[in-house]
Amino acid sequence: MLRVDCLAGSNMIELIRRTIERRYFMAKEQRAFPDAAYAFTDLYGGVENALRKTGFCKEHVERADADWNRFAKDRLGEGFFQEAQKSGLAKTLVEGRPRKQMKEGLVWKPNEALPITNVTELIVNGVCQVRNHIEHRQKFRGDEESQKRDLALIADAHQVLELILKKHPELKEHL
C-alpha cells in the first residue's frame, strides 16, 4: 500500500496516480514502450521478489535487496552461462552487453558494447542492466537500428529469466 501522508500536497498524489495509469493501464498504442518491455519488467520483478523470498538478499544491507550476483554465482554457475551461450537464446546480450551512462558528460561507456563472458556478467551486467535501462527510460530513444537492438536485448533478457525459472522451478512458487 502506498503511503501518501508523507507526500507534499495533492499535486504529488495526482502525479503518482497519472504515472501509474500511464504505465499500467493506458491503451497499448499510447504506451511508452513495446509490450515486450512490460512483459520483461513484470517477469523480472517476479523473479526478483522470488529471490528475496528464497533467501537471496544482499548481506550487510538493511533493506531486502535481491542479491542477483550471489544467486548467479551460487545457484546458476558457469554451466548456466554456457547453456545460454550455446543455445543462442541470449545471442545479442552475450555478444554486446548494454552500456552504462556515465555521470561525466552523460556519455555511454564503453564506446563499443563488450561481450559477456560469464554467468555473473550475464545476470548483473546483462539482465539487470536491461531492466535498469527500461525503468530509467533509457530504451527506445535512439535511431531505428538502436531500437531494434533494444528489442533484441529485452527478448534475450526475458529468455534468460525463463531459463532461470526452468532450471529453478522452486522460484515459481514465489512469483
How does the helix and strand content classify structurally?
Answer: mainly alpha
Q: What is the mean pLDDT?
A: 83
- β-sheet strand percentage: under 5%
First-last Cα distance: 18 Å
Count of folded domains: 2
Short description:
Helices cover 58% and strands 2% of the residues. With 175 residues, the chain is mainly α.
Task: Report on the architecture of this protein.
The protein has 175 residues and is an all-alpha fold. The protein has two domains: 1-31, no CATH class; 33-174, no CATH class. Helices cover 58% and strands 2% of the residues. It has six helices and two strands. The chain has helices at residues 9-25, 35-53, 68-87, 91-95, 119-135, 144-167, and strands at residues 100-101, 108-109. It has a two-stranded antiparallel sheet with strand order 1-2. Helix 2 (35-53) crosses helix 5, helix 2 (35-53) runs parallel beside helix 6 (144-167) and helix 3 crosses helix 5. The longest helix is centred in the last third of the chain and has 24 residues, at 144-167. It is globular and about 40 Å long. 24% of the residues are buried.
Task: Fill in the keyword field for this structure.
mainly alpha, 58% helix, two-stranded antiparallel ribbon, single chain, 2 strands, 2% strand, disordered N terminus, 175 residues
Write the layout of secondary structure elements.
Blueprint lengths: L8 H17 L9 H19 L14 H20 L3 H5 L4 E2 L6 E2 L9 H17 L8 H24 L8
Antiparallel strand pairs: 1-2
